[in-house]
Amino acid sequence: MKLIDNLFIRRYKKYNIQFATKSQLSYQYLYCKGISNIKNIGVGLNIDQLNTNNETENIVSCFMSEMRDKGNHILLYVGQISRRRNIILMINIVSKILDKNYNCILVIVGEGEKKYVNECKKLILKNKLEKNIYFFNKMNQFSLTAVYRETEAFIFPTQYDIFGMVLMEAMYNKCIVFSSLNGGSTELINNNINGFILKSFNTEEWAQKIIDSFSFSLEKKDLILSTAKQTIISKFTWDKISEKFLRLYKSKLSLKY
To answer: Strand pairing partners for 133?
Structure first.
């Protein structure tokens, strides 16, 4: 890494190269390298793919609906099944919620390294959670939309992430989002307003935060969900992001010519 810095950063500074970043965290990373010509742009979501009219009911969404009708709180994770995504922590969170006498189901949609997946499944069996945690293969966007709409809480305790697209999808589809501090959550979530950011990976803290949301009034829940969706619509569609890129590009042209 130091070799790369020595080779390129001096050149970037010399020619005043413009950088556009996905998140404030990546902005700060470059700034700490001594680069100052930085503009934080963000990432956009193609909401056309998430249009309700394109929603495809599927076996997973039907299963979630059935479990919810039986009195379970429905938790969801979508993404890679890997160690950095903290699947083990998710399993322990479910166990803790159940210990506190709340019925819940965690649906995990994604794929990963077989060895790690098996490690997770062994822990599930050890803790007798096979009726509470279910794995499903990754699916297309239209099917995922139906899955999001059956979800009460979306959990994303990743150890690090550049920008979690699934956070935007969950917020747009009106899930209450619980995320670790990462590139995406720092841009998208106004803590306690349109979602929740947890700065630790403490199982008790995550479980209690999720449990607290179970008792939100309909008014409070609707406010969080509508604010989350509006955040995406007003700031994080590709139309909005492309406007930022265009303004940045035009500003560079005006300086050059």
So the answer is: 106
List beta partners, residue 112: 81
How far apart, in whole angstroms, are the C-alpha atoms of residue 77 and residue 58?
17
How far apart CA 43 and CA 180 sit, in angstroms, is 18
195-249 per-position pLDDT tens digit: 999 999 999 999 999 999 999 999 999 999 999 999 999 999 999 988 888 888 8
**pTM strictly above 0.85:** yes
153's enclosing H/E stretch is strand 153-156
Nearest to 81 by CA among 184, 133, 158, 167: 158
In 3D space, the residue among 142, 176, 182, 153 whose CA is nearest the CA of residue 56 turns out to be 142
In CATH terms, is domain 47-235 a member of 3.40.1390.10?
Answer: no
Domain locations in the chain as residue ranges: 1-40, 47-235
